[in-house]
């Protein structure tokens, strides 16, 4: 056997050994991981990743919303799917006894439900079950389940990333969100929350591209705050139902005209607001 043949055989054996090692690592992860936080993407079910679907199929116990259960019924058939534990993040880390009045009562109700959820997860893991918490879009961008990664840190949970509605919104606009004559940065933000200092008017002073996650916030309030620092002629777009092939919609205008264009339009629970010159930028000027 000449040197070339030996070299080829060694290379093949090396690749085979590497493949075996990677397979062993994957199997080890499956054997040791019992808790997953899974992003299932925005919009239609076919935006979920292959990894998300694989974990759904492996899981013994699944926590989900009713909408997610319906969307992925094909993959959840025969599974134990538990509903009713949505929005457990408010007041996490706070002692309800430190609050007053209605706020305390609300915190106590959520705390009781959260403790019930925590107990169910820990019992399932103790029983050697694989548990999956399914969340829409990317669970770590304004997601309601990020708190459980801290709560179950000892269980070494694995996060399965999901496509964000931000990604789906970019696709709906068919624009490079980082392409602009003046800026290359994108600021992701939401409505101004009590106690937070990164308010919309402070962020907008940079005139960078901004993408706002709305979540029931008032559209007119967003526009008024953006107009504090952006000129009225700044391009703006509203993306509704990002990721849904049959009902995705884009409304474009400027900060000075968009209120009239959206007036009377029923905005969904979650819609995205894009602000910035990237919306009118063209690589071929004048074309």
Tell me about this structure.
This protein is α/β, with parallel strands linked by helices. The chain folds into 2 domains: 32-163, 3-Layer(aba) Sandwich (Cobalt-precorrin-4 Transmethylase, domain 1); 166-279, Tetrapyrrole methylase, C-terminal domain (Methyltransferase, Cobalt-precorrin-4 Transmethylase, Domain 2). It has 10 helices and 10 strands. The chain has helices at 3-32, 50-58, 66-71, 73-76, 101-126, 147-151, 165-173, 200-203, 219-226, 258-262; strands at 35-39, 61-63, 80-82, 131-135, 158-160, 186-190, 209-213, 235-240, 249-254, 271-275. The strands form 2 sheets. It has a 5-stranded parallel β-sheet with strand order 3-2-4-1-5. A 5-stranded mixed β-sheet has the order 6-7-10-8-9. α8 links the parallel β6 (186-190) and β7. The longest helix is centred in the N-terminal third of the chain and has 30 residues, at 3-32. The mean pLDDT is 89.
Side-by-side strand order of the widest sheet: 3-2-4-1-5
CATH architecture assignment of the largest domain:
3-Layer(aba) Sandwich
CATH class of the largest domain: Alpha Beta
What's the overall geometry? globular
Overall pLDDT metric: 89
Fraction of residues in β-strands? 15-25%
Unreliably modeled segments: none
Largest sheet: 5 strands, parallel
Integer count of domains: 2
Helix proportion range: 25-40%
